[in-house]
Amino acid sequence: MRSPVPKVLHRVCGVSMIEFVVRTARQLRPERTVIVTGKDRKGVSSAIGTERISYAVQPRPRGTAHALSCALPALRGFHGVVIVMNGDTPLLSPATIRLFLRLHRSGRNALSVLSFSAGNPAGYGRIVRDRGGRVIAIVEEKDAHAEQKHITEVNSGVYAINHNVLPLLDAIRINRVTGEYYLTDIIAAAHAAGLRTGSSCIGREEEFMGVNTREELHRASAFMRKRIVSAWIEKGVSFVDPDSVFIHPDAVIGGGTVVYPNVHIEGSTRIGREATIYPNVRVTDSVIGDSAVVKDSSVIEGSHIRSLASVGPFAHLRPGSDVGTGARIGNFVELKKARVGAGSKASHLSYLGDAVIGRGVNIGAGTITCNYDGVRKHVTVIGEGAFIGSDTQLVAPVRVGKGSYVGAGSTITKDVPPGALAISRVAQKNVPGWAKKKKSSPRTEGGGGRRGR
User: Fold this and answer.
1) Domain 236-422 classified CATH 3.40.50.150?
2) Model confidence over 58-110: pLDDT tens digits?
3) Domain 7-208 classified CATH 3.90.550.10?
4) d(CA 226, CA 379)
5) Residue 374 and residue 360 in contact, taking contact as beta carbons nearer than 8 Å
6) What predicted TM-score, i.e. pTM, was given to this entire model?
7) Which residues contact 182 (CB under 8 A, 6 or more apart)?
8) Is 191 a catalytic residue?
């Protein structure tokens, strides 16, 4: 991967590959989940956590069979089926693994491998069957003879192994060329021991894609993005250009919502029904209510936009902001930890930080809450129905009372009582005839210097 980050921690649509695999495993409700890592255990465990997960360490990379052997202490006393999956296959779906497990049990197999039909089998381990159709071996590309290379049923790397078959790991011999122990060899060992082995050729090839390069990571991301968008289309969400949007796997979108091109919906975002998200919007870890509108080129972070509200274009909602029902936040308005009441509006060119704004308030253009004194942040409170004129500075901590007015161009440093008018301006001075005198006064070209030397 040409990266200091462990391979399985590289992200697909915002989630690490290993986390996708763990999520799939958890949906099977396993009795135990064991992750086998190498020297990068701390990085993996810090990303995935330890809740209902055991970790086993493979001190040196000595192959897949050796990796499973390292997990045996964590499986001590377990009686059941062990499902083996790879941490670099993020596209595996729980439905496929559930079907595979059912087929394993219904076939009364001691050991099963999940296979698929590859359009181009080059590089995959081939599934070799006897005349009766029973799986007898998995042959790697480099070991396959000419006839076996024509086999298109290949190994996905997913296994179902009954607990009493695990001792056969000791029968696997080291590959003299690579110095590794391959889990693929357990099929031949089980067949030689007279155990019932099987293969389930199910699923689509893309689902079993392993990621080993940056290019494969991008391909996996494209597949996952398409899968996520298709799932929301089936639930009634409209995408103007499905190929240009990015939806995090944890995001939720209500039916009837319309999403325009180049929209990024990230993290645990929740979008209600019949909302509209216009182009070039990024929403992260936020809640957007029913029938709300987010207009072009807006950024919403850790905020709540309630139903029927409108935000943007070119608005920025920083974490902790809350836009009330039917409120309007217009172009080039920035909120930070600001609570805006229902029906209030700040239509353009304002910064509202650390503010509590009541219902039905009008915020004029160019309004600023001066919330930072160089050491601490302070709160501005604006009461219900207040009117804040354009180009106003509210120097926090300060309160503007219910129904009061603040004249345009004011700097408010003291509380404004309810129903009052606050004005803070330098007295205007008019000089009669000044413009005419200005025009008639002599001008010096070139700033007064000599010309044309």
Assistant:
1) no
2) 999 999 999 999 999 999 999 999 999 999 999 999 999 999 999 999 999 99
3) yes
4) 44
5) no
6) 0.89
7) 63, 64, 65, 140, 172, 175
8) no
